[in-house]
Amino acid sequence: MTVSADPATLEVRGLCKRFDSRQVLDTVDLDFQPGCITALLGPNGAGKTTLLKCVLGLVRPDEGTIRLGAQEVNGQGAYREEIGYMPQLPRLPGNLTGWEMASMLDDLRTFTGTPDEDLIDSLEVREEMDKPFRLLSGGTRQKVNAALAFRYGAPVMILDEPTAGLDPLAAMTLKEKVRAERERGRTILVTSHNLGELESLADQVVFLLEGRVRFAGTLDSLWADTSQTTLEGAIAELMRRNGRREAGAESRTGTVEGTPSMEVA
Amino acid sequence: MGTVWKVFHYQFRDLIRGRALAGYTLFFGAATWGLLHLGGGPVRALPSLATLVILVVPLVSILVTTTFAYGSEEFTELLLSHPVGRGRLFAGLYLALTVPLAGAFLLGLGIPFLAGGGAAGGLGGMVALGVAGALLTAVFASLGFLIAVSVHDMARGAGLALLVWLALAVLYDGVVLVVAHQAAAYPLERIMLALMLLNPVDVGRVLSLMALDVSAMLGYTGAVFRDFFGGATGVVIALASLVAWAVVPAWLALHRFRHKDF
């Protein structure tokens, strides 16, 4: 169905990034393995977005390296052929249709394989793909966004708030797709506000706080480390340990959007 | 070149389907038609039309470009997550905005003129005006992109764009006049000339009016320029100046775009 691509490990070594006087990433070392879903957690400003943007080449790190399989992530764009990125509720050109976007991306990637159109059918957006974006509802746009991200069967998938704006049924369909991609050996990074959702999806958890990795490991090791049994409790414990009690106490589970105090994304 | 063309192709398609561009053509169409038919022929209509073009084209170009650049930031990020080079993407976006803007302007100016028989006396002036307007579109699109990649906040960027337009299109000539008046006792021609070449709107005005015998319309700097250079040399220098004004800010914007953190 999809183009088969070799599994790729994503290696982050000693990554540092400053914006003005703020250290957004501080010596971050991480490994993301094929066939593994990693949840990226942390409050606002913890550095999650910057880390993802470094991987995508949108932000240039001050120090450190990122390797994708055998390729080094540097100024060149070719490695991004290996990445499928689902941005958070992006604004796309309003007068273009989903199919036009798809063919634009096909063209830009000089993609000649068979695209993965599973999500177009399972999310039931085949007809919507013929309409210009400005006529689509927020939920439908997000479905098209998801379909475009999974279209190329890329070995590394980066999903930024994938279920934001989706109804529960569509969110479930998408999560099934993510699991299916894990079985295919994809390296998957997810961020989400919805801790419950991440708990059911993730194999591995990375917790960032003030630009530093405070925890990286499997869910089981997180439970053992924090003596907690839910992601909410474990995150609260990690924040308490690192002296951020007030923010941790406000965390909630089960919300898709709108918990500004604890943005786990 | 492939990537530039692909980006251009789809962005162009998106833009051309919007109503705003058609409105821009209609505006210049109505103005040209009105001035040609009600103003008593091309020779009398052209100076008024030139004044309008010199004010409106820079304003629309810089505002449309900055708004577009900020509005498509997320889309730009999405495209950059694919194997696309930053320089090529920038070139595609720049052309996809500049070409339709200049095209819409030229259609608005050209259709009523040609439909009205293109009265013999006005052709030269009309062509000069079209060239000046198209180049001013490129100049202010370059400035708009430069602002958008340099200023992070959209509201501040749009404000700065308005300010740049106001300074170049309105305030500049006034300031030059005051300086000239204050220093009337000194031989200032060369300085005036330099001052004019520093302002693309002035250069555009001279270029569009040089074909006509209306020195009074040129403004102080333009009159000096015309005396100094006369015909062909003046046109070449004016064209070169406008091209430089389009290329240098675009190149700076490209440079920033390549090294920017999104």
User: Largest interface, by Cβ-Cβ below 8 angstroms: which chains and how many residues each?
Assistant: A-B, 31 and 28 residues
Mean pLDDT of chain A: 85
**Count of runs of 4 or more consecutive helical residues of chain A:** 9
- Could you name the ranges of chain A where pLDDT drops below 50 across 5 or more consecutive residues? 245-265
* Number of DSSP strand runs of chain B: 0
Per CATH, the superfamily of the domain at 10-88 and 158-262 in chain A is: P-loop containing nucleotide triphosphate hydrolases
List the secondary-structure elements of chain A in sequence, H or E.
Answer: EEEHEEEHHHEHEHEEHHH
- Output the radius of gyration of chain B: 19 Å
Q: What ranges of chain B have pLDDT less than 50 throughout 5 or more consecutive residues? A: none
Extended strand count of chain A: 10
Rounded average pLDDT of chain B = 85
Strand content bin of chain A = 15-25%
- Looking at the chains present, what oligomeric state does this protein adopt? heterodimer
CATH architecture of the domain at 10-88 and 158-262 in chain A: 3-Layer(aba) Sandwich
Helix content of chain A: 25-40%
